[in-house]
Amino acid sequence: MPLSKDQQAEIDAQRATSQSTLRATAPGMEKHLYTAHPVLDHGFVRVIDYMGDDNAITQAARVSYGKGTKSVQNDEGLIRYLMRHWHSTPFEMCEIKLHVKLPVFVARQWIRHRTANVNEYSARYSILDREFYIPAPDALNAQSVINNQGRGEALSGEEAQRVLKYLTDDAMRCYDHYEEMISDEGQQGLARELARMNLPANIYTQWYWKVDLHNLLHFLRLRADAHAQYEIRVYADAICKITADWVPYAYKAFEDYRMGGANLSATALDCVRRMLKGEAVTQETSGMSKGEWREFEGVIG
Questions:
Q1: CA proximity to 196, closest of 216, 222, 177, 209
Q2: Which residues form the active site (predicted)?
């Protein structure tokens, strides 16, 4: 279960209690507060708190007050201008705090984004739960033959079943030994901070992750991309849906200019101009490496 009974009871109590506030609220985000959105087999993402909305971005850009000095249409246009020209500071006026439950190996990827405030569940102080990420059969893939850090075709038949059995058996055996080592029944019991070293990287951990909108969108641009590892991408996808409800204008501009757009080098842009003039440009005449040309072809279709 992604949530324990105690966690669900705490969430229910929080959602049943409302308080009046004078600060700006985002109606789309209010529905997400405290709600746990399931991810993978035991994970979740839930919003603990947030600050700001689309209006906070335009207020900061204009250094205005109240509802701002322009119309709603101008607000959306300003946000698109800011996104288009990479003016990041106004987006830093919005913040979000998330509670995330995720496998340790996903957390190690995630923590590379060093632009957030993080507090993780302590396995020195507490005992980790017997919960491990075991991929669905269709998420078991061979190594990609063209990408050293990616996946290729899905495993099938006996090989897939054997891998799933190894992952499950090894995780359970490691946790059995973890419990035995920390037990103080008939022995001193090993310190938790030492016993945790025996646990596999697919065990679940939890943390609070607080980040401003500018750095959140940078995280989503990388981790919600089709080339990102599946196990972190599904978390990014869940956060994308939350962000779209929180700051709809900003997220729409983000989808248009970051997720759906493309950056071209001077060399690539020159190739586009040559193509528009009718020239048959090839990789050999483009001035690009084979890898760059392959990516360029992917952009222009």
A1: 177
A2: 223 (involved in ionization of n3 of dump, leading to its activation)
CA distance 117 to 211: 6
Co-location of 145 and 225 in the same domain: no
Q: Which domain holds residue 293?
A: 266-300
Quick one: pLDDT at residue 58?
A: 93
Burial of 103 (0-12, 13-18, 19+ CB in 10 A): buried
Q: How far apart are CA 62 and CA 47, in angstroms?
A: 28
CB atoms < 10 A from the CB of 220, how many? 21
Q: What is the pLDDT of residue 22?
A: 78
Report, as residue numbers or ranges, the catalytic residues: 223
Report the percent of the chain where pLDDT is more than 90: 78
Q: Where are the alpha helices (DSSP H) in 85-143?
A: 104-110
Both tokens of 243, joined, read: 């962000």
Domain count of the fold of the chain: 3
Predicted TM-score (pTM) of the model is 0.88
pLDDT on residue 66 = 55
Structure token digits, residue 10:
């705490």
- Residues annotated as binding site? 89, 109-114, 120-124, 196, 212-214, 218, 223
Q: In the predicted model, what is the mean pLDDT of residues 200-221?
A: 97
Backbone angles phi, psi at 191, to 5 degrees: -60, 140
Angle in degrees, CA 143, 148, 152, rounded to 5: 30
Q: Which of 182, 208, 12 is nearest to 120 (CA)?
A: 208
Q: Could you read off the pLDDT of 147-204 as tens digits, one per residue?
A: 777 888 888 899 999 999 999 999 999 999 999 999 999 999 999 999 999 999 999 9
> Are residues 31 and 83 part of one domain?
yes
36 bridge partner residues: 46
